[in-house]
Amino acid sequence: MKLYSTNNHDLNVDFATAVFNSMPLDKGLYMPVHIPELDQEFINHIDKFTLSQIAYKVASVLMKDTIPLEDLHSIIDDAINFEAPVVELGRDTYVLELFHGPSLAFKDFGARFMSRIMGYFLKDNEKMLDVLVATSGDTGGAVALGFLNVPNTRVTILYPKGKVSEIQELQLCTNGDNIHAIEVDGTFDDCQALVKQAFADEDLNGKLRLTSANSINISRLIPQTFYYFNAYAQLKRQGKSDVVFAVPSGNFGNIGAGLLAYKMGLPVKQFIAATNANDTVPRFLDTGVYETRPSVQTYANAMDVGAPSNWVRIMDFFKEDEAALKQIVKSKSYTDEQTLRAIKDIFETYDYVACPHTAIAWLALKEYQKDNSGSTGVFLSTAHACKFPDIFPEEIKARIEIPEQVAELSKKEKLATHLDTSFESFKAYLNRY
Ligand SMILES: *Cc1c(COP(=O)(O)O)cnc(C)c1O
Fold it and tell me: Which pTM was predicted?
C-alpha cells in the first residue's frame, strides 16, 4: 500500500512511514494511491462471514503487499476482539453499536488496530516510541487502553482537569504500566497546544521518538471500514438492502472510513453526516463555501469540532467533484435542545438509551426517512451512554446499564500527574523520561 498527500499527489510513501508520521510534512493527509475494490463474489456472499473474517478480507485486499497475511491475521484477531452488532429498534430502524470495546466507544477500533500496527513495525532494540495525545475525553481512553502493554511504546495523555466525565477519567488514569496521564489545569485547547509545542521542540525530538495518535492516522481509518461491511452483512442476512448510514460526525474520521468502504465496493444508498451546532460541513454542503469556525461546546462534546481534520480526505475521495460528493453524503446539524428531545424520544419509542452523539445520528436518519421511504436506516452508536451521565434526565439515567469494564475500573487507584499550562512544566516532565 502506497500513499500520497492530499497536498501533493506525486508523493509516494510506504505504509509504515505514513503510520509513524501521521501527517505528511506538507500538512496534507495521507491517502492510498490505489483504492482496490473487493470482488463482487465476496460482497454477494458477505452475509456468510463473521466480523473477523470480514475484517481480514478487507485488510488483506488493502494491505497484502505491506504486511504478510499471517501477521495481518494475528494483528486483526488481537485488535478486533469485540463485536459490533446491528440491533433492530423499529421498522427500517437499526442501531449499529460500536461501543463494545474496552473504552466503550468506536475509537477502540482505530486505536487498537493502530497500536498493534505500530508495535508490529517497531523492531527489537529500536528506540522507545513516545505517543503524545491531547484528549477532550474519548480519544484518550481508546488510545490508553489500545496501547496498554504494547511493547516498546509509552503513551502520555493530557486531559483538561474537571472537563472529562468520571468514567473517561478512570479510563485515562487507572492503567499504570506504559500509560501516563497528565491532568492539565486548563482547557482541551491548552492540552493540544502543549502537544503541538512538544512536536515542534528540537531538544525533545532529539531525545525522544515522538508520534501522535490522532484520528487522521491512516491506520485508524482502515479498521473503521470493517464495521460498515459487517453491518451490511448483518442486514443482508435479514434480506435488507438500500442501506443508509447516519454517522455522528466531529472530525469526520468515522464517516471517512464509511466512504472508503463505499469506494471499495460496499453497496450504500446514502451517508448522512450528523453534527451538533458545529456545522462547518452541513453549511459547506448547503452553500458551497467551506468556512471553519471556532468550536462551540455542546452535549455531544466528542463532536465539538469547528475545523474537521478529516474533511480534506473526503474531498480527495471524490477528487473535488462536489456533485458526486453531495449525492452520496447529506449533512445536518442539530441543537442541544433537539439532542435532548431525541434522547427522550428514543427512550420512549424504543425503550433504548442512546448517548447524545448517537441521538443526533438518529435525528438525521429520521429526517431523511421522512422524505425517503423504503430505505434501511442504520444510525451509528459511537459511545456507551454511561460515559456521558450528566446529560440524561434522572429516569433515563437510572436505566443505563453499567458494563463490567467500568465496574472494574472504579476499584482501581487513580494515577495522574498534575501540571499547569506552561510548556516549561510539560517539557520538564517529558525530560524526566
Ligand atoms: C470521536 C467521536 C465522534 C466523532 O467521530 P469523528 O470520527 O471525529 O467524526 C462521535 N461520537 C463519539 C462518542 C466520539 O467519541
Answer: 0.95
